[in-house]
Specification:
This protein has 166 residues and is α+β, with helices and mostly antiparallel strands. The chain is built from five helices and five strands, in the order αββββαααβα. It is elongated. It is found in: Apical cell membrane; Cytoplasm, Perinuclear region; Golgi apparatus membrane; Membrane raft.
């Protein structure tokens, strides 16, 4: 049982780390001499422009920013609730609250990645960036966001099924 508990804790911390990295790092859309994320666009690595309200797609960017931050917060809160429930629940009770919070985290990261998938081209076109930015590809932060989605989904279901044992 101790090994299972250690695995669950490591799995949850890994999910949180993936969410932090994908939210913070500047690699959602990359190309030869540029990289973009939900916060800024960098051309030639040194020339960075913060995405601001002058962009007509700013509301889409704000939605992605907000849901990624919420997903990270929910994941961290779920971990704290899990630790509290671990010592407070009676034997045989389920970690329903932890599962619910973790599944909310899963939902938020899915919404963020889906919005970005749908709107990233409009985002770059409306801001007037060079055409080479439109010819990029999804970066590792974007891929980590989808992997975090899978991890948080598995973790949320795992907490729902998990019963406290001796």
């Amino acid at each position: 049982m101790l090994i299972l508990l250690a695995f669950i804790i490591v799995f949850h911390i890994t999910s949180a780390a993936l969410l932090f990295i994908s939210t913070i790092d500047n690699a959602w859309w990359v190309g030869k001499d540029f990289s973009t994320d939900v916060w800024k666009v960098c051309v030639n690595i040194t020339n960075c422009t913060v995405i601001n309200e002058s962009n007509s797609e700013y509301q889409s960017v704000q939605a992605v920013q907000a849901t990624m931050i919420l997903s990270t917060i929910f994941c961290c809160v779920a971990f704290l609730v899990f630790i509290l429930q671990l010592f407070r629940l009676k034997q045989g009770e389920r970690f329903v609250l932890t599962s619910t919070i973790q599944l909310l985290s899963c939902l938020c990261v899915m919404i963020a990645a889906s919005i970005y998938t749908n709107r990233h081209k409009d985002l770059h076109e409306s801001h007037g960036y060079p055409s080479e930015i439109l010819n990029g590809q999804y970066g590792y932060s974007f891929i980590l966001a989808w992997i975090a989605f899978v991890f948080t989904l598995i973790s949320g279901v795992m907490y729902l099924v998990l019963r406290k044992r001796k």
